[in-house]
Write a structure and sequence with these properties.
Blueprint lengths: L8 E5 L3 H12 L4 E5 L2 H10 L4 E4 L8 H11 L4 E6 L4 H10 L3 E4 L4 H13 L1
Parallel strand pairs: 1-2, 1-3, 3-4, 4-5
């Protein structure tokens, strides 16, 4: 059974612990319900049990890349927003993400203020 999307839930998916810790720390301060996954399989399991409103998603991860995870998430939760946060800066990666229906595409290293503004804009609408 598919659960309804939680309006305050954000899922952070990244295999780099320092990126996860930074995003988790900053977004937790804003009273969002933060969940964390270190790979695509873990993220899919979390999302299916705790539908997020927003997913902050890396592309390059072990076992399942961000694009594959994105496709599976969108099948289950088409209303969930996804912002790719990745080191992949090639135009074709950005184009693919946006064509697939991503809400945004941010390249690392990140500007945390930029991410906060984008997250708040999505979460408030």
């Amino acid at each position: 059974m598919i659960k309804p999307v939680s309006q305050k839930r954000i899922l952070i998916v990244d295999d780099a612990e320092n990126n996860v810790m930074l995003l988790n720390d900053v977004l937790s301060e804003l009273d969002y319900d933060i969940q964390v996954a270190k790979n695509g399989k873990e993220a899919l399991n979390i999302a299916l049990n705790n539908a997020p409103r927003l997913v902050l998603l890396d592309i390059m991860m072990p076992d399942m890349d961000g694009f594959e995870l994105f496709e599976q998430l969108k099948q289950q939760y088409p209303e969930t927003h996804v912002i790719f946060i990745t080191a992949k800066s090639a135009d074709n990666d950005r184009e693919l993400a946006m064509t697939m229906g991503a809400t945004d595409y941010i390249t690392k290293p990140v500007n945390i203020i930029d991410i906060l503004q984008k997250v708040q804009r999505i979460m408030e609408n």
